[in-house]
Design goal:
This protein is α+β, with helices and mostly antiparallel strands. It has two domains: 8-212, Sandwich (Jelly Rolls), CATH 2.60.120; 288-385, Malonyl-Coenzyme A Acyl Carrier Protein, domain 2, CATH 3.40.366.30. The chain has eleven helices and 18 strands. The strands form five sheets. An eight-stranded antiparallel β-sheet has the order 3-11-8-13-7-6-4-5, covered by helices on one side. A three-stranded antiparallel β-sheet has the order 10-9-12, with no helix packed on it. A three-stranded antiparallel β-sheet has the order 15-16-17, sandwiched between helices. Helix 5 packs across helix 7 (271-282). The structure holds succinic acid (SIN) and cobalt (II) ion. The site of succinic acid has 9 residues, from strand 12 and strand 13. Pfam families: JmjC_2 (PF08007), WHD_ROXA (PF20514). InterPro entries: JmjC_dom, NO66-like, ROXA-like_wH.
Length: 388
């Protein structure tokens, strides 16, 4: 994707300009980001999804005296029959994993790393419905799918921003409005992390949230050090050969801290392990149970491909690749695989994974390492046969 081509999706600016001026910094309202956008899923279909066991769904109902009641799915048909006429929102997480037409939307966001994308959440709200003024720690693109929603934005928040006493939802006690717009289908609002926002449905409305993920510093440190720990032998310890006599045996001296810092720096600075951990972490599936895999022999794989079968990415799997020294590494749903540099084009093809078939795989099926990789990815569940 050429980052210097103006994009309708970004209101006529280029991806480069968007990343420079707005991404993670300030909001951007884009009228008709996707002109004539029609929601590929109806409110009834969304409600249908929220009945499924493996789907994460919430209902937020605004009652006068007890605002923003949260109910968690999966729901039953009766949950919807007994809802009031207005003032409620149904939110369904990761719809892209269940509805291919919704996953398609992510193609528009290829100017950002795919491993930064979390999911496409879709909300359906009746007039007056909303989840209250709040902030998220993630970037989000809010695409209006149906009906109209009034979006209000406010101040930048942080962990110290006062919240209402609410058992389930993080609702801001103070909302300092700076702007407001009514979004029509196809309009989109980009919000950087921590910006207060408040969406209220004007009529029956559907909003798509393309949400991003970024590990917290605490997650990076705890997870990476856990990962590193597995590779360190028990006998490798804090050591102080050559230490000077202590003037007071009870004092921890500065040189002890320096030794500790050197020990940390030696391991924390291991780029190979850091890249391996990061790729694994960022490709962890949201629902690992949906990346189940299947037993398959090499003959069966080749036979199916020769018969015209098509391999696609399991919509619940995440894929990314990287360079590690002279080698390449493929990250697939939390696992990593070191591969020779000659497989670069295959890795790119697999990660883009529109459709893998005998024609575009061709030469790779004759390559032992390439063929084996494909087989392992199907067995692991990151790739699967498209059912056609
Ligand atoms: C919604 O779609 O109702 C809520 C999205 C958000 O504010 O994060
Ligand atoms: Co939000």
């Amino acid at each position: 994707m050429n980052p210097d081509i103006p994009l309708q999706l970004l209101g006529g600016i280029t991806a480069r300009e968007f990343l420079r001026d707005y991404w993670q910094k300030k909001p951007l309202l884009i009228r008709q980001a996707l002109p004539d956008f029609e929601s590929p899923i109806s409110a009834d279909e969304l409600a249908g999804l929220s009945l499924e066991e493996e789907v994460e769904a919430r209902l937020v109902i605004e009652h006068g005296e007890r605002p923003w009641e949260l109910r968690r799915g999966p729901f039953g048909e009766d949950d919807f029959k007994n809802l009031p006429e207005r003032d409620w929102t149904l939110l369904v997480q990761a719809v892209d994993q269940f509805v291919p037409d919704v996953a398609e939307l992510l193609q528009h966001f290829r100017f950002l790393p795919s491993w930064r994308i979390d999911d496409v959440m879709i909300s359906f709200a009746t007039p007056g419905g909303g989840v209250g003024p709040h902030f998220d720690n993630y970037d989000v693109f809010l695409l209006q799918g149906q009906g109209q929603r009034r979006w209000k934005i406010g101040q930048m928040c942080d962990a110290d921003s006062p919240l209402l006493a609410h058992a389930d939802l993080r609702i801001l006690a103070n909302f300092e409005q700076t702007d407001e717009w009514v979004l029509e289908p196809g309009d989109m609002l980009y919000l950087p992390p921590r910006l207060a926002h408040y969406g209220i449905a004007e009529d029956d409305c559907m909003t798509y949230s393309v949400g991003f993920r970024a590990p917290s510093a605490a997650e990076v440190l705890t997870h990476f050090t856990d990962f590193l720990g597995q590779f360190l032998p028990d006998e490798e310890r804090y050591s102080d050969a050559g230490t000077a006599p202590a003037s007071d045996p009870h004092q921890i001296q500065r040189d002890s801290l320096d030794r500790l810092k050197a020990l940390l720096a030696e391991h924390m600075g291991d780029e190979r392990l850091l890249m391996t951990w990061f790729g694994q972490f960022m490709t962890e599936p949201r629902y690992p149970e949906l990346v189940a895999g299947t037993e398959l022999s090499e003959e069966e794989l080749l036979g199916s491909l020769e018969d015209g079968a098509v391999l696609v990415r399991n919509p619940s799997a995440r894929l990314a690749w990287s360079e590690v020294g002279e080698d390449l590494v493929l990250f697939a749903s939390g696992q990593s695989r070191l591969l020779s540099a000659s497989l670069r084009e295959l890795l790119k093809l697999i990660c883009a994974a529109e459709a893998l078939h005998i024609d575009n795989l061709g030469q790779w099926l004759a390559d032992d390492e390439g063929r084996n990789l494909l087989l392992e990815l199907v067995k692991q569940g990151s790739l699967e046969f498209a059912d056609e």
